[in-house]
Amino acid sequence: MKVQIFGDSVMRGIVYSGNRYRTVSTRFQSLQNAGMEVCNYARLGHTVDKGLADMKRRLTESAEETTVILGFGGNDCDYNWDVVAQNNDKNHLPNTEATPFVATYRACIRHAKSLGAAVYVTNLVPLHAKRFMDHIGQNGRRKAIEEWLGDESMLYRWHEYYHQLVCETAREEEADILDIRTPFLLSRRYETLLGEDGIHPTEEGYRLIEETIESQLLVNTHLHSTIQWA
Fold it and tell me: Tens digit of pLDDT per residue, the chain (230 long)?
């Protein structure tokens, strides 16, 4: 049995620290012990349209023995902050607007299901608004970006809006939701779970994500495996 993961940098296991990105080797040991072969095709910077294209390239034949995990939204709701800062009196669009985001995510789910795969969708890990504002507001951009946003907490609210779109779409398409958000929100170690840029988890945060996904998947599956990083 296989597990194929399509998503963005959070699903890939990217940590931002010391002004650089690096990958945490999330191994999903419990899934391996249960017999799953895990292939992680998630990529830094991937939006849902890139994910769909990747899925269609890699998932092309019967997938009845495959579980597909999808995790998009963080890059889709993001903006080109340089452009925003330079033109903060104008309207700006996110990388993927809400309507095409939902339509494309729906297409991802349907493509995997059409081939017989079991489909799971991860919701969005919460954003740390202050750290993210500090990150995107570097090089003198902060004041202009804050003026455009209205208030710093808009970063959290906008990100949460895409989280809700993900959940609504998954429910409508009858795809199971892997709830990786709630454990972050309930943790008294929340500040240690998110990294310097406010959007990528720390290694501790990724351990929590891994444990959460493993526990939720293993409730529904009984399999046997190795892990592959594509």
Answer: 899 999 999 999 999 988 889 998 767 888 878 888 999 999 999 999 999 999 999 998 888 889 999 999 999 999 999 999 999 999 999 999 999 999 999 999 999 999 999 999 999 999 999 999 999 999 999 999 999 999 999 999 999 999 999 999 999 999 999 999 999 999 999 999 999 999 999 999 999 999 999 999 888 764 434 445 45
> Distance between CA 92 and CA 89 in Å, rounded?
9
CATH of domain 2-229: 3.40.50.1110
Is residue 132 within 8 A of residue 145, CB to CB? The reply is no
Query: Rounded CA gap, 7 and 45, in Å?
Result: 9
Q: Which amino acid appears at position 97 of this protein?
A: E
For the CA atoms of the chain, what is the radius of gyration?
18
SS3 97: coil
Residue whose entry in the numeric block shows the structure tokens 């209205």: 150
Which helix (DSSP H) or strand (DSSP E) does residue 215 occupy? Answer: helix 203-220
Rounded to whole angstroms, the Cα distance separating 159 from 198 reads: 12
In the chain, domain spans: 2-229
Residue 163 Cα to chain centre, angstroms:
9
